Amino acid sequence: MLSIDEAKQSDYRYLPPKSELYNPDLPIITIIIDCYYNLNLVKQSIQSILKQNYQNTELLLIDNGAEELVSDYIRQVYEKHKNIALIKFKENQFSWEDTQKIVVICWNVGVLHAKGLIIGHLNYDDMISRNCCSKMARLFSENSNCVTAGPLPLSIDIEGNINKEFSNRLKLGNRRPRYIDGKKLALDRIDGSPNKYLSAPGGVLFIKKDTLIQCGGFDRASDITQVIKFAIHGDSGFDPKAKLFWRHHDGQLNKLAKNRGVVWCDDLIKAVRNENIIEMWSNIFSKNDVKKLKKYINNDLRKANAMSIIELIRQKNLLGFFMSSLNTLRKCPLSVPYLLYYSFFEVMSMMKEKSQPIKK
136 and 241 share a domain? Predict the structure, then answer.
């Protein structure tokens, strides 16, 4: 079943905007934000949309069975402002057994009801610059073959201060021109990013609504499929003057999940199968390129999962490492050789570091 069809079967209520005001000569951009907890960060995320300098911005708020204070706040925003729609779920669409269910259900329900022809998603704890939507709209308007576009991602801490070191790495990893063939973007990604076209903290790309729907919607591997499933169907735009502020903090889902031993080693494999991505590539790319994709799926993601677990060793989080190793054995046994190999060398490296005398 395609991800967007899974979302159609979910139980929710859609509330259309109380009032609307759009310029008919400009494209509408819909920003989806799903909310559950942490009211302070939710407010900052929503305010970054309300302050956009682009009139044709629709904010589609998702009340994902939210905590009472969060639910009350987003209802007030919905009642007070124009160009805002609200989707309410009675029950929270998150599960530790399926951490990406929220993407498949909440994001895609938003896609189904979005007024915009261009869609972006913003996490509850992230923000975008005031000019982001206007810059993205311009990229799509200037190039009719543009199907995806992205701002420059920057890292911020819990207080909103820019993490300069990490942000500089993100700048160096986003060296693509204003427009690039999406197929080049995808090939660079699966080749290990030798050209450093796109380094992104998760889903950073704005995507045409019709492309999203035709390709099955957001799936459980959205970080990589934004490139290998959506971007391949046309050009991908980029404007570094527009910013996505990606917040790093201890309450991030990926950090909490690692501590619980959650592994994502099979998400991409399942997404590729369910969303018919190999068939897409077979119709667009050469046979050699399709082989590269298959190799990337079978090897690189398993290695990436192992390396993610190795971080727990470096952090001396033995409980998290033990639980992650068990889940890897259960869900992705083919990743175990990578895990054992890199674990051994990581432990040896740490022992070597500990044995070296401290220089005065």
Answer: yes
